[in-house]
Amino acid sequence: MRSKRDAKGEMPFLDHLEELRWRILWSVGALVGGAVIGFYLLQQFDVFTLLKAPITPYLPEGKLFITRPTDAFIITLKLAVVLGAIIASPVIFAQLWKFLSPALYAHERSYIVPALVAGLGLFLAGGLMAYLWVLPAVFRILYGFRVGDIEWIITADAYFGFATQLILAFGLMFQLPIVMTLLASFGLVQPKTFRKQRPIALVLACIVAALLTPPDVFSMMMMMVPVLVLYEVGILVSAILRRRGVWCSEPGSRRRCSRRTDRRSDRTASSVVDRPSNRRRTRCCSRSTRRRRARRACPPNRRGSFRKPTRCSTP
Question: Which residues contact 284 (CB under 8 A, 6 or more apart)?
Answer without folding.
Answer: none
